[in-house]
Write a structure and sequence with these properties.
Blueprint lengths: L2 H11 L3 H27 L8 H24 L3 H8 L6
């Protein structure tokens, strides 16, 4: 089985995949939000902190979650066809 289908099956088709997928989404959302906040504290001006940066952090994190979900779905393109082509005929 190709690596991309194994990743897709692990994230979408296996037991416990819903919890695994939710944890990955939350980790990406929080991670990218904290990354923007960290960059703001390092190079941003103190007068502008905690204003639009909070919304921008959420927007960056949400965009990263959408990108992760779309990437995983793209990895699964052709998965059902692959399963049908590798299925052995029964009763032969």
């Amino acid at each position: 089985m190709p690596l991309r289908f194994r990743i897709y099956r692990y994230m979408r088709q296996s037991k416990g995949s819903l919890v695994r997928f939710l944890l990955a989404d939350i980790a990406v959302l929080v991670g990218f939000g904290l990354l923007v906040a960290l960059i703001d504290t390092q190079i941003g001006t103190p007068e502008l902190r905690k204003g639009l940066v909070v919304w921008y952090s959420f927007l960056v994190g949400f965009s990263a979650v959408v990108t992760l979900n779309a990437s995983i779905e793209l990895l699964g393109t052709g998965y059902s066809t692959y399963l049908r082509s590798t299925r052995r005929p029964s009763g032969a």
